[in-house]
Specification:
Strand order of the largest sheet: 2-1-3
Strand content: 25-35%
Low-confidence stretches: none
Helix content: 25-40%
Shape: flat
Structural class: alpha+beta
Order of helices and strands: EEHEHH
Radius of gyration: 14 Å
Largest sheet: 3 strands, antiparallel
Length: 84
């Protein structure tokens, strides 16, 4: 796969609910970077979200390599499991 074929995805993971929203950008890395920077600025004061810009051949690959964002396990559930 050439660099021109890599797709970019902005993932905004809600730390309280454990839900992820994904915004696809296709191969437009510049637009993805701008959206990432805007999302980081919007969340800077409250830090309610884990915001990441990920790149791969498909969303399915992202879901496999970063499954913690898509497993449906909230951070509160994770803390409870770790405390056990």
């Amino acid at each position: 796969m050439s660099p021109d074929e890599i797709k970019h995805f902005l993932v905004v993971y809600d730390l309280a609910t454990g839900k992820a929203e994904v915004q696809p950008f296709g191969t437009d890395y510049d637009a993805a970077q701008k959206a990432y920077a805007a999302a980081e600025r919007a969340d800077a004061d409250e830090a309610k979200f884990d915001i990441v810009l990920l790149s791969a051949d498909s969303l399915e690959t992202i879901k496999q390599t970063h499954s913690s964002y898509f497993s449906g396990t909230s951070s509160e559930q994770l803390r409870e499991l770790l405390a056990s």
